[in-house]
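*** Backbone structure tokens ***
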Amino acid sequence: MHKNPRKVLEAVKLIFPKELLFKYNLIKLLGAFAYAILAFRIYTTKFLLDSMVDKDLGGFYFAIAFIVFVYGFGYFLRAIEMKMHRRLALRLCCISREFLFNKLVKYPYSFFASNLSGKLVADLRNFDLIEAWYDKYQGQKIAILRILIILGIAFYTNFYLGVSFIVFTFLILWLYKNQVKKILDFSEINTQNRSIFIGRLFDYISNISLVRLFNTFKTETFRTKKDLKNYMDSSIDLYVQKHKFNLYGNFLLIFLEVLVTFYLIYILKLGQITVGDFTIIIMYLSIFNTKFLMFIRNESMMSDWKGGIESACKRLFVDFDTCDPVKSVSKPESSDITFDNLTLKLSNKKILKNLTLEIKEGEKIGLVGLSGAGKTTLVETLMRLHCPDSKMVYVGGKDITKLKLDDLLDMFGIVDQNTLLYNDTIEYNLTLGRKFSDKQIKNALQKAYLNDFIKDQDKGLKTMVGERGVKLSGGQKQRIGIARAILFDAPILILDEATASLDSKSEEVIQKSIKNLIKNKTVIAIAHRLSTLDIMDRILVMKNGRIIEDGSQKDLLNKKGAYYDLYTNQNDKFY
């Protein structure tokens, strides 16, 4: 079993159950059997024509009856094969998508932080071709079987005719071997350039407000056009390579058709073959050329898909420590928090250093410090967005590395300065799809001071908020975040600079909402403004990944240390 596949077949074996692949192959074999029967009907045409030339009426009627039977039975099998194939192909598509989704949602925050979302979307689209690739892969085996049947009939009819078919088959396969590696290389480069371009375009559109505010259209357009040019250039290179492949293959097959036709006329005049032989070889030659051209085009298409799928595999199948325990412990029953000599490295740099801290259940803690001090990283580690070593972080006396991630995250509610919202209704952004009673929702709206705002909307809770909540003000988004946290009623609350970007009037309303939210909760507040810290039991000052001061606001001001300097010098703001 390949944990992180790099080749398409490795990914196929990892994703799809063996029994389904076996069933899939059986269906393909049924299709091959149906084709063999249908191919044999052409050979019966020989007997039909020969009986006409020989004026054999009995043989003529028998040939017609046999052709009708072969047609009927062959297409009956083909219809069964197509119906079964469609059903199983759709099932395999669903399995591959579900597998990848389940894998991605377990990846840590750092994976998504280091990959453009547009690039990931492009990779997902490329990976979605895996079922189609496998279908073509198995189909190519059947195509080879069809070609071998035609070669066998050619040999049976005339030895030299069979030899000519064999020679041209090997010439085309030699051409394929030499060209397909080049196509695969060009395809991988083209896929990478396409992913970069889509990622850039997605980033451009997502940040269009920033582009407009700073009037950076020329700069961003130049970067996007540069990525587009690289993608177009590699697309042209790939097209030229595939066109050369198809051109050479077509030329060889046309040459084979002309050569065989003249040879058949020659041996027909010598009386070495019958009119029936001549007719069926011409018919099989046409089928041979068609199937071989299809084989070449499919190989070209598969090489293109393979490059995209394998490029996606390199980015989507990676080793990450998800911190999921083999044996988990039960969900914590209390909300006290302990950091025991916590040290955390990110990108080989120590962000948190030998940090020890205890937070009692129901205690409210404020975190302050300059930018880069480690405040956000500390909270992210507590929620296992970064993976700490075991026996360093505890919630309710339970080592968080021994908890199921779902059980751990259920312990937390969060109100961020940038409230994350779906392009959906207010109601969905409050509940996130979970079931809450009308009474619970009404209570949350009241405590978050959202009632008047909802009443002013024509569609009430069914009002769409736009992508990332663009139709709402900063204060409205914050109150939706607070109402959401009230609904979910988690025992531990994270306030991540919840009032940092608000005007004084909005901040006053948010502060009232927060007071309703934090009652009987354990709270960690990352603060920019002192107004948030007024209701905290303790304030922790962080610097370079360490806690350098710990105490009440009054004690820290009297101490006249780092907190006092921040308080007096930075005009009621912390960075």
User: Anything to note?
Assistant: The two ends are 49 Å apart (CA to CA).
